[in-house]
Design brief:
Keywords: Membrane, Transferase, Transmembrane, Transmembrane helix. InterPro entries: Glyco_trans_8, GNT1/Glycosyltrans_8, Nucleotide-diphossugar_trans. The chain is of the alpha/beta class and 362 residues long. Helices cover 36% and strands 15% of the residues. It has one domain: Spore Coat Polysaccharide Biosynthesis Protein SpsA, Chain A, CATH 3.90.550.10. The longest helix has 26 residues. The radius of gyration is 28 Å and the shape is globular.
């Protein structure tokens, strides 16, 4: 029977009602739903839902299905890079002594790419020691104290309890900075990014990436930001952090995603090379790594030990080596990059570090 004939038969009998069958009718009338039957039915339903969600989820996104197709450079060579300006700055932060060597190493890598912008390090005086501030700023950062902005809600991850202080970046307008690129201390710079200072937008960031089902998302990671300073914007944000509805655990990153969600310019991944990208798509990372501007050490931090504990300067090399096997050795190349950057930093600024070590640690 052909396909058409089969369909005709199905249509023909779709409304068919059988003749009365007393035995069948009696059996049906006696049927009752038992707890076991309900459980089995619910189990079947949930399994169908699970299988449907699994089937839908197997369609990969373009980034999970990354292919090396575009051979052109990120920037148009015909577009001029903006001239140096005292109104531009690269900014980082120091909220704990444990990140001092990371800030110093980041500063050295920025010096190597010859950025025309000034370097400013915001820090919390009550949370950091004179020794740590000295070490961190040894590579040319101008240390700028800020007031801590406490979390407005409970539930913030304990490592993020000081992160709302990042909102003070907008207050740097008062020292003459009009546009800035912010970098978390756990980043390294590999290429000049002065082109960002010519952006006409108020706020820009790189989309985030997760290792779970969320994958590549429209929300951004707050470890690298471009922004135009405004004390008015700061005042508005501070007034709303306690009343806005957003998940508390990710602190300022969660709030900023809600505050700038629809306005934020999404930047290319090269400006925030989150190590989670490599974990999720080795092919994408391989292409990205060839011309990357910033690597973000999210999944492994070569300068920390244990639970975000400080590593003494004379033990950093050993600590880096102890991290090589993490994640199955996936990040060995990136750890070697950090080790090389630290070795250069220590060689060039070793005397300054020695002087800093003599300062108070409290």
């Amino acid at each position: 029977m052909g396909q058409f004939s089969k369909l005709s038969v199905l249509r023909r009998y779709i409304d068919y009602v059988p003749l009365w069958n007393e035995q069948l009718s009696t059996a049906k009338s006696k049927r009752r739903w038992t707890p076991g039957g309900i459980a089995i039915g619910l189990s079947i339903f949930l399994n169908v839902v699970f299988l449907w969600r699994w089937w839908v989820g197997t369609t990969p996104t373009a980034l999970d299905n990354y292919q090396s197709l575009n051979v052109y450079s990120l920037l148009d060579p015909a577009v001029a890079i903006p001239a140096a300006s005292s109104e531009n700055a690269v900014v980082t932060s120091l909220y704990t002594d444990a990140f001092a060597t990371a800030v110093a190493t980041l500063g050295h890598t920025i010096n190597k790419v010859n950025s025309s912008a000034s370097k400013v390090m915001i820090y919390l005086p009550e949370k950091t020691s004179p020794r740590a501030v000295c070490i961190a700023s040894a590579t040319g950062w101008s240390a700028y104290p800020i007031a801590r902005i406490p979390p407005p809600h409970p539930g913030v991850q304990r490592h993020f309890l000081d992160q709302y202080s990042k909102l003070q970046l907008w207050d740097l307008e008062k020292i003459g900075i009009k546009s800035l690129v912010y970098l978390d201390a756990d980043t390294l710079v590999f290429q000049n990014f002065d082109e960002l200072f010519s952006l006409p937008y108020r706020f820009a960031a790189v989309p985030d990436v997760f290792l779970d089902d969320r994958g590549f998302v429209a929300g951004f990671n707050a470890g690298m930001l471009f922004l135009r300073t405004s004390r008015e914007v700061l005042k508005d944000m501070v007034a709303k952090i306690a009343t806005a509805n957003y998940p508390a655990e990710d602190a300022e990153q969660s709030f900023l995603n809600h505050y700038f969600g629809k306005e934020a310019l999404r930047l290319p991944f090269t400006y925030n090379g989150n190590l989670a990208i490599k974990k999720r798509s080795k092919a994408m990372w391989a292409d990205l790594r060839e011309s990357i501007h910033v690597v973000h050490y999210t999944l492994v931090k070569p300068f920390l030990q244990g639970d975000y504990a400080e590593v003494p300067i004379n033990k950093l090399e050993k600590n880096i080596n102890s991290k090589m096997g993490k994640h199955g050795g996936l990040f060995a190349d990136e750890l070697n990059d950090w080790a090389e950057a630290w070795a250069e930093t220590k060689e060039k600024y070793g005397e300054a570090f020695a002087e800093c070590e003599a300062l108070s640690s409290s």
